[in-house]
Write a structure and sequence with these properties.
Strand content: 5-15%
Main location: membrane
Subcellular location: Cell membrane
Helix content: 55-70%
CATH architecture of the largest domain: Up-down Bundle
CATH class of the largest domain: Mainly Alpha
Strand order of the largest sheet: 6-7-8-3-9-10
Radius of gyration: 37 Å
Distance between the termini: 70 Å
Keywords: ATP-binding, Membrane, Nucleotide-binding, Transmembrane, Transmembrane helix
Organism: Psychroflexus halocasei
CATH topology of the largest domain: ABC transporter transmembrane region fold
Largest sheet: 6 strands, mixed
Membrane topology: Multi-pass membrane protein
Shape: elongated
CATH superfamily of the largest domain: ABC transporter type 1, transmembrane domain
């Protein structure tokens, strides 16, 4: 229940629906009890069990102890007055009363469900929105060890499970207990002795039912984890379909997926079979209580004469009326246990502490004035440092190029400047402002990013570009495409800017995708540009086109270029050569060639004419 207390905060915006649901449930419970009591005068009329002399005068209320007799006599008196000893009229009248009460009961039930629908779906919507917002806010480091499919499972099926469990809890704490309460109150009015006898047996049956559901949370947790695993396999399969087919690895992934779904099948069977035991077990135990009641109550009618037949039949209806809500409560308690596992998984994400936090009183920086400073920065992804005491200053309008072999720490610097990760030691400043003193939104407003992998979305070209600037005019879009040398191929497409580029932009070539990524960054027009191996995916012709575009783009900007192809950074104001997270050389292209050191070796390996 602790997890659901935390989930309940999502119901606050919809509390008016909860209040209306409770009001409707109160009427449902009241009409539910009264509908059975109304059977008593009908049975009296049917079986002639009523003394005619007793209903000649209107009964007088004499206190709570005689409330049951007063209610019976009051109904019987007025039925007799209207029917004037015509039994068929009296019967029709009482039947009409019973139908009216059942109709009102069902109207109240519908209204209760009507109002709860807004609450349920509202909580579902807000919970999913909160999950998505948190998913986007969490740092990249959080997802380095997490399976995407597991996160998807938590946002979809786990949240849906909470929705069902949430409804069960509301029934558990409102409608069903109220129904039981009103029914018991009515049963006590009819016969205190018989009701005490009934309640000797109810705790026994309740204890037996509770034993069934103890392992539900554990089994439900296994089901949800396995669902997350096979969704992850599916997500990885769709992402790597080309490799799977190219290496004839279909059977390997088929076997992995089937192994996971088989586990899901077994866990689900155990969970549902245990859950399905709730309803028949509670019904059988309820009927057992009714059977004992028939024996004991029958003796009160036939031998002791302390209870009349019509009251006993109505009492039996009331006793059975407890079974449905009792069964509902037992089923709801199982759902709570099952949903508890889902709530735990959802809250694990919602309550994950975001280590990259904005300051309480941030500095707002609207422009870049003089220089970007990296002062003695060190960083480790886990224990081993991938960057050690790195220092560099990039003046406004300069281009700094970072080169080195894979794993030398080049891309890490891009991740630290954009604050996708936080440095362990040192500081990064824009002018005199530490980037940790700014909001992440403010910091990234000053930066444009082009990554090695062209990250595009299953949208039109225009929609992908507008991520850089939502209010861009068509002229600005076209100018950005021209700067990125993407204008010609876009204009050759059937729908031009309105062309949908498919999942991850896979309808385009690698070079075309990268040029669109560059156009998106150009459209944003930031003062600082981060180019993380932006030309590595391009063919030679595209590289030359884009290189020219990059040179035009970086003229009036501070640029940090992480280069794989060294031919692209010959004109950089400064080149830093990195190895194992440290600076081994720095200078201009010609200076570094003349040194005949690490940079010269890298250039020679790429075999281009210096």
């Amino acid at each position: 229940m602790n997890y659901f207390k935390k989930i309940l905060r999502f119901a606050k915006p919809y509390k008016k629906y909860a209040i209306l649901n409770i009001i409707a449930n109160i009427f449902y419970a009241l009409f539910s009890a009264l509908s059975f009591v109304a059977l008593i005068p009908m049975l009296d009329v049917l079986f002639g069990d009523k003394d005619a002399n007793k209903i000649q005068e209107e009964p007088v209320y004499q206190g709570l102890g005689s409330a049951k007799d007063f209610f019976k006599d009051y109904l019987s008196y007025h039925v007799h007055q209207i029917s004037q000893d015509d039994a068929s009229v009296a019967l029709m009248l009482v039947i009409g009363l019973v139908i009216a009460l059942f109709f009102l009961k069902n109207i109240a039930n519908y209204l209760a469900m009507f109002f709860i629908t807004f609450l349920r779906n509202g909580v579902l919507k807000d919970l999913r929105n909160a999950m998505y917002k948190k998913t986007v806010e969490l740092p990249l480091s959080y997802y380095s060890e997490k399976r995407k499919g597991d996160t998807i499972a938590r946002i979809t099926s786990d949240v849906l499970e909470i929705q069902h469990s949430f409804l069960s809890i509301l029934e558990l704490i409102v409608r069903e207990p109220l129904t039981i309460l009103f029914t018991i109150a009515t049963m006590l009015l009819i016969s205190v002795k018989l009701t005490i006898f009934v309640f000797i047996f109810i705790p026994v049956s309740g204890f037996i039912i509770s034993l069934i559901g103890k392992s539900l949370k554990k089994k439900s947790d296994l089901v949800q984890k396995e669902q997350g695993l096979f969704l992850s396999i599916l997500e990885e399969t769709l992402g790597g379909l080309k490799i799977i087919k190219g290496f004839n690895a279909e059977n390997i992934f088929n076997n992995k997926f089937q192994e996971s779904t088989n586990k899901f099948y077994n866990y689900s069977n155990k969970l549902l079979n245990r859950q399905n035991l709730a309803s028949p077990a509670s019904e059988f135990l309820g009927i057992s209580v009714i059977a004992v009641l028939l024996w004991y109550g029958g003796n009160m009618v036939l031998e002791e004469g302390t209870l009349d037949g019509s009251s006993f039949i109505a009492y039996m209806g009331l006793a059975y009326n407890i079974l449905t809500p009792a069964k509902g409560i037992s089923k709801a308690s199982y759902n709570v246990k099952k949903g508890n596992a889902a709530a735990e998984r959802v809250l694990e994400i919602l309550e994950t502490d975001n280590k990259i936090k904005d300051p309480v009183n941030p500095v707002e920086k609207k422009e870049f004035i003089s220089a970007l400073h990296l002062n003695n920065i060190s960083f480790a992804y886990e224990k081993e440092k991938v960057l050690k005491n790195f220092s560099a200053t990039v003046n406004k309008g300069e281009t700094l190029a970072l080169v080195g072999q894979s794993g030398s720490g080049k891309s890490t610097i891009a991740n630290l400047i954009t604050r996708f990760y936080d440095i362990n030691e040192g500081e990064i400043k824009i002018d005199d402002t530490n980037i940790k003193d700014m909001t992440q939104h403010n910091l990234r407003d000053l930066m444009g990013l082009v990554t090695q992998d062209s990250i595009l979305f299953n949208e039109t070209i225009e929609a992908n570009l507008r991520i850089g600037k939502t209010d861009a005019t068509e002229a600005e879009l076209i100018e950005a495409l021209k700067v990125a040398n993407a204008y010609e191929f876009v204009m050759d497409l059937p729908k031009q800017l309105q062309t949908n580029i498919g999942d991850s932009g896979n309808k385009l070539s690698g070079g075309q995708k990268q040029r669109l990524s560059i156009a998106r960054a150009v459209l944003k027009n930031p003062p600082i540009m981060i180019l993380d191996e932006a030309t590595s995916a391009l063919d030679t012709e595209s590289e030359k086109l884009v290189q020219r575009a990059l040179e035009n783009m970086t003229k009036n900007r501070t640029s940090v270029v992480i280069a794989h192809r060294l031919s692209t950074i010959q004109n950089a104001d400064r080149i830093i050569v990195m190895q194992k997270g440290e600076i081994v050389e720095q200078g201009k292209h010609n200076e570094l060639i003349a040194k005949k050191g690490t940079y010269k070796k890298l250039v020679d390996m790429q075999s281009f004419d210096s």
